[in-house]
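Is fe (ii) ion placement plausible here? Inputs below.
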Amino acid sequence: MDVEILGRVLSTLPEDDDHPYRTGPWRPQTTEWKADDLEVVGEIPADLDGLYLRNTENPVHPALERYHPFDGDGMVHAVGFRDGRAFYRNRFVQTDGLLAEREAGGPLWAGIAEHPGKSLRRDGWGARGRMKDASSTDVVVHAGVALTSFYQCGDLYRLDPLTLETLGKSDWGGMFPSCGVSAHTKTDGHTGELLFFNYGKDAPYMHYGVVDAGNRLVHYTEVPLPGPRLPHDMAFTENYAILNDCPLFWDPDLLAKGHHAARFRPDLPTRLGVLPRRGGASEIRWFEAEPTYVLHFVNAYEEGDEIVLDGFFQGDPEPKDIGDGGFYQRMFRFLALDRMQTRLHRWRLDLRTGRCREERLSESITEFGVLNNTYAGRRHRYAYAASGVAGWFLFNGLVKHDLLTGAEERYDLPEGVYGSEPAMAPRVGSTAEDDGYVVTLTSDMNEDRSECLIFDAARPADGPLARVLLPERISSGTHATWAPGSAIPGWAGTDPPATAAGL
Ligand SMILES: [Fe+2]
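Reply from A.M.:
I modeled the complex. Tokens:
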């Protein structure tokens, strides 16, 4: 392994920190690494070609009062595979908030579990206002550039996908929305488009937009809602975008007093909004479904007069005090998949009748489901999802769902080893939906290290084909993506791949 340290930050976190989401598998890193020719146990398939990118919440400073794991500063990890070899990079996203707090030497903004009025700065981003845009939730690759995003809305930070150097922020020719963009932007590999939404406390409460393959904002429309809502994800088909209005949102009475407390309203339906991909507000059709909260959708596609939408239904979107845990386990019960009872679910939206039919697709508790992105917006058969540790926001296994037969294949990580959101990497020359590899990163508390695991996407239960050793144990985090080498400028023809800086 050929290792170089690119940078180090000065953390002001307490040495005797006892916050469970800043210690153990969530221990943040302070070092930025560049490591080539990583040590491998097993063999990296020669037809695995591209980048696995993962965003993590990686706090540099303590919270003003109460840290929430989604407040941490964005740090992106990249593991690249080429010609049977692997390289690794990790860099902080150089957000405006990170730079300001580093200069101040401490926290300036209240986090998600704190009152925004506590913020030391009057400015800031987010659906709540006065937040630091940590850009730590999600990462996708669009138009050859990695884009990081924040689930409370903010900028899209542009990173060179190879060096992870922050190149700046999406501007879209001065058209970037003033209320920001949410996490879970969607890329359609068939058209090269980026689809996105945002939300906030001011009417119309949501917008939706499209950026084309040339990185131009070509569509932006209001999506009027009955009030402030907390959408987290969206979906799309070849012809439609699908947005949601779930009955879990800030209590309006408390919101009037400046408190942001999410409450589940089982007396209200889930509403799923369908509009043509370039359609306006008057063309949105809302379908009513069983009340729940959907954190993540897997995919959607058209089938006859219906839109088929797969995602994770929460049996208990507002889990009550779990009792057996301590303060932090009670505080973060909303992050535990077993408490929220997240199960794979299918909504069928009939464009002819306006009705919605629903079915549960699995009894297993899984979330963070991904698919072969070549099938995004098209009919898919497989979903690769994570299983969770009881009571905590940690992943302990990988589940392949066959949505045609209902079969499930599971790979459980050893006790004390935690995975990341998987990504499906189609094999170069792939001929079937599951012809490729599933990639995930681990935080191994037994060996105090991290590995990148590569599975055969057709048979993940067989265990990893290869384990790639990273230079340092990384923190747990949220979302990941796969970018084929063919989507990365400078990838082919040079060794090591040239950077995309300047795009
Ligand atoms: Fe998410």
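Short version: The first strand starts at residue 2 and ends at 8.
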